[in-house]
Amino acid sequence: MKFSIVVYAAPYSSEAASTAYNFVRTLLDEGHEIYRLFFFSDGVHNANSLVATPQDETNLQHGWDKLIRNHELDSVVCVTSAIKRGIVNQQEADRHGLVAASITDSSEISGLGQLIDAALNSDRVVNFG
C-alpha cells in the first residue's frame, strides 16, 4: 500500500512527531511504500538542521533526516510554514537576508500543491499532530 504522511507537530511539543516517525519506520519495515512526507505548520521544525539536543535525548530531526536519506523518501516542507518559523534553504535565506540555511538537505521546500499531489497519488494519507 502507498502512504503519504503529514506531520503537523513540532518534534518535542507532543508525541505526535515521534509517533509519525515510528509509524513510517514500521510501514517501511513491513514493505509499504511512502509516496511523500509532508511537514506542515509546526511540523516543519522536524526538518531543522540547526538543532543540538543533549546526548541523553533523542534527536528526532536527525532521525527523520537519516530515515529520509536511507530510504530515499520524498520529503517536503511547506514553504509558508517554514519561512515563518525560520526553516529555510539557501535560496530563501538569501532572498530574505538571513545568515544561514536551516533545513536538512534531505527535505525540500515547496507548496501545498505537493500535498494535493500526495493525496491524489496515495492509497492513504495519514496525519499526525
Describe this structure in words.
By secondary structure, this protein is α/β, with parallel strands linked by helices. It has one domain (2-128): Hypothetical Protein Ychn, Chain: A. The chain has 5 helices and 5 strands; from the N terminus they run βαβαβααβαβ. It has helices at residues 16-29, 60-70, 79-84, 90-95, 113-121; strands at 2-7, 33-39, 75-78, 108-110, 124-128. Strands 4-3-2-1-5 form a 5-stranded parallel sheet, sandwiched between helices. Helix 1 (16-29) links the parallel strand 1 and strand 2. The chain starts with a strand and ends with a strand. The mean pLDDT is 96.
List descriptors.
five-stranded parallel β-sheet, single chain, Hypothetical Protein Ychn, Chain: A, alpha/beta, 129 residues
CATH classification, class level: Alpha Beta
Largest sheet, if any? 5 strands, parallel
Inertia-based shape: globular
CATH homologous superfamily name? DsrEFH-like
Rounded mean pLDDT score:
96
Strand content: 15-25%
Classify the fold: give the CATH topology.
Answer: Hypothetical Protein Ychn, Chain: A
Distance N terminus to C terminus? Answer: 22 Å
Category by helix and strand content: alpha/beta
What's the multimeric state?
single chain
Low-pLDDT residue intervals, each spanning 5 or more residues: none
The DSSP helix count reads 5
User: What's the SSE pattern?
Assistant: EHEHEHHEHE
Q: How would you write the strand order of the largest sheet?
A: 4-3-2-1-5
- Number of β-strand runs: 5
Number of domains: 1
Radius of gyration: 14 Å
Kindly state the percentage of residues in helix: 25-40%
